């Protein structure tokens, strides 16, 4: 595929391939988080999703998160990919893989990555149901317009 | 000249994904007001603004050539 | 491969294949933990490892952990596999994959699984260095001979 | 008759991975002592005992035909 550490793509994501990118001799633990399209949310049946990104900025922000992780948990390797376009039920929307010397950091860094993605990466999800569609926003219930933990310039 | 980008619900509300306006010298706050006059979408109020692919605060000043993106609350992941 | 939920094998483990087993329509999150063979531990260079299991009991205990998880986090699907025999640096020793409706439970259940594996599953690791070899035990530093959290019959 | 199983370091210390002994009626604690007389390995003291693939406490009574496994502290994962 490519040698990138983070990317946004319309192509299906391969967890196995992403895991192999973080595998290395000085790591003993790899944690992976995969977000998939769930059929029912709060009792409502989703038919499919559509993800839209601001691709250049999304990749910048993913890279920022990877850098934050490697600063906060030294010795961590992070690879993250987000898919855009139409995604059907069970399709993979996001894959985060982190490798660390020991397991504690692998869980912490992986969790940090997904929370930060939901906070600062410009990607949006539109849910399509039988009776309509809607852009989903503010999943983290952060105050609109205020980039949490993000330094405003 | 500055390029303005709209995404997701905001793009649908504005009916366009990008438009050119001359906004150099204005702050982000002033830009929001000005754009709201042309595209009076409630979502503009709750959106973040990115200048050249970086989040920008209300006081940030726009320069000639800057790309200004209006970002509704994100929902990736 | 097979339709098992847990297994012990001498064959290489495929994270991608294991992840596909927990993928389902009512899950939105998949967390995976992979344990790999690390080259250096406390400054000492490992050449390779040898894992030995009490296979029948190990699979029983893995199944018990999967059952504990599904009781503690309803709506979770767990698949776990542990490799035995000789493993070289970067080889995968264990793969845990859990799928849950929401991400919180995926992290918690995955973490629970690896901690329990290190507590109650009869598998042993022998480290081989240039100047010797040693069976590793009691990684959790539990009191020897006392099966933690395990009900004695 | 009962089958005894040794694993990992204990297997190496005992020089065998399984042996048959008649232990029915004894408790796990008594079995440990008896086996220690034949295989005086320190590791036996720090091992857990499983009877028929389930962890067994010190008071657990061995029955005819039970398989008894001596398990050094585990180190999988």
From TrEMBL, chains A, C:
<dbReference type="InterPro" id="IPR003448">
    <property type="entry name" value="Mopterin_biosynth_MoaE"/>
</dbReference>
<feature type="compositionally biased region" description="Basic and acidic residues">
    <location>
        <begin position="140"/>
        <end position="153"/>
    </location>
</feature>
<dbReference type="InterPro" id="IPR036563">
    <property type="entry name" value="MoaE_sf"/>
</dbReference>
<dbReference type="Pfam" id="PF02391">
    <property type="entry name" value="MoaE"/>
</dbReference>
<protein>
    <submittedName>
        <fullName>Molybdenum cofactor biosynthesis protein MoaE</fullName>
    </submittedName>
</protein>
<feature type="region of interest" description="Disordered">
    <location>
        <begin position="132"/>
        <end position="153"/>
    </location>
</feature>
Automatic annotation (TrEMBL), chains B, D:
<dbReference type="InterPro" id="IPR044672">
    <property type="entry name" value="MOCS2A"/>
</dbReference>
<dbReference type="InterPro" id="IPR003749">
    <property type="entry name" value="ThiS/MoaD-like"/>
</dbReference>
<comment type="similarity">
    <text>Belongs to the MoaD family.</text>
</comment>
<keyword id="KW-0547">Nucleotide-binding</keyword>
<protein>
    <recommendedName>
        <fullName>Molybdopterin synthase sulfur carrier subunit</fullName>
    </recommendedName>
</protein>
<dbReference type="InterPro" id="IPR012675">
    <property type="entry name" value="Beta-grasp_dom_sf"/>
</dbReference>
<dbReference type="InterPro" id="IPR016155">
    <property type="entry name" value="Mopterin_synth/thiamin_S_b"/>
</dbReference>
<dbReference type="Pfam" id="PF02597">
    <property type="entry name" value="ThiS"/>
</dbReference>
């Amino acid at each position: 595929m490519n040698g990138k550490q983070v990317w946004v793509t319309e192509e299906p994501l391969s967890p196995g391939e992403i895991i192999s990118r973080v595998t290395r001799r000085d790591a003993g633990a790899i944690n992976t988080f995969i977000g998939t399209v769930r059929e029912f949310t709060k009792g409502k049946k989703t038919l499919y999703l559509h993800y839209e990104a601001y691709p250049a900025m999304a990749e910048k922000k993913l890279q920022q998160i990877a850098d934050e992780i490697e600063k906060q948990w030294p010795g961590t390797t992070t690879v993250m990919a987000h898919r855009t376009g139409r995604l059907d039920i069970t399709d993979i929307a996001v894959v985060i893989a982190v490798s660390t010397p020991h397991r504690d950091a692998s869980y912490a860094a992986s969790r940090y990555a997904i929370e930060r993605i939901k906070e600062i990466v410009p990607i949006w999800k539109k849910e399509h149901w039988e009776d309509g569609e809607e852009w989903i926003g503010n999943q983290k219930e952060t105050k609109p317009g205020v980039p949490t933990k993000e330094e405003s310039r | 000249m500055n390029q303005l980008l709209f995404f997701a619900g905001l793009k649908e509300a504005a009916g366009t994904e990008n438009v050119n306006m001359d906004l150099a010298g204005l702050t982000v706050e002033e830009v929001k007001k000005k754009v709201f006059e042309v595209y009076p979408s409630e979502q503009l109020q709750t959106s973040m603004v990115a200048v050249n692919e970086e989040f920008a605060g209300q006081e940030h000043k726009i320069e000639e050539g800057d790309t200004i993106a209006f970002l509704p609350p994100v929902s990736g992941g």
